[in-house]
Design goal:
- This protein is 61% helix and 0% strand.
- The chain is mostly helical and 102 residues long.
- The longest helix is centred in the first third of the chain and has 26 residues.
């Protein structure tokens, strides 16, 4: 499938939207790291597109005390693919994550 041809204005708008989304995700991760937002709150907010399209590995690594290695081990143990996003989590995977990180 070929990529759509965008005008310069459409391209600039898309780039601006992408930058805003990345900034919102970075702010969310910062709030998670500071303990202002819990994992439960994030996992239950799948109606928010910023949250829904965030990768699980990125979310886990933003938790205090969880680095890249621990996040990978946890995801492997639960059966979550490395490229999975929050909106793609099954209910059992979501529950297992919450139980493991309590």
């Amino acid at each position: 499938m070929a990529l759509p041809q965008l005008t310069d204005a459409e391209r600039r708008a898309a780039l601006k939207k992408a930058v805003e989304t990345r900034q919102k995700r970075a702010e969310l991760k910062k709030r998670i790291k500071a303990g202002q937002v819990s994992l439960t709150q994030v996992l239950n907010d799948t109606s928010n597109p910023v949250v829904a399209k965030m990768k699980i590995s990125s979310l886990l690594q933003s938790l205090p005390g969880v680095g890249k290695a621990r996040a990978q081990k946890l995801m492997t143990r639960i059966g979550i693919d490395e490229s999975r996003r929050i909106q793609g989590l099954g209910s059992k995977q979501r529950q297992s994550l919450l139980e493991e990180l309590r």
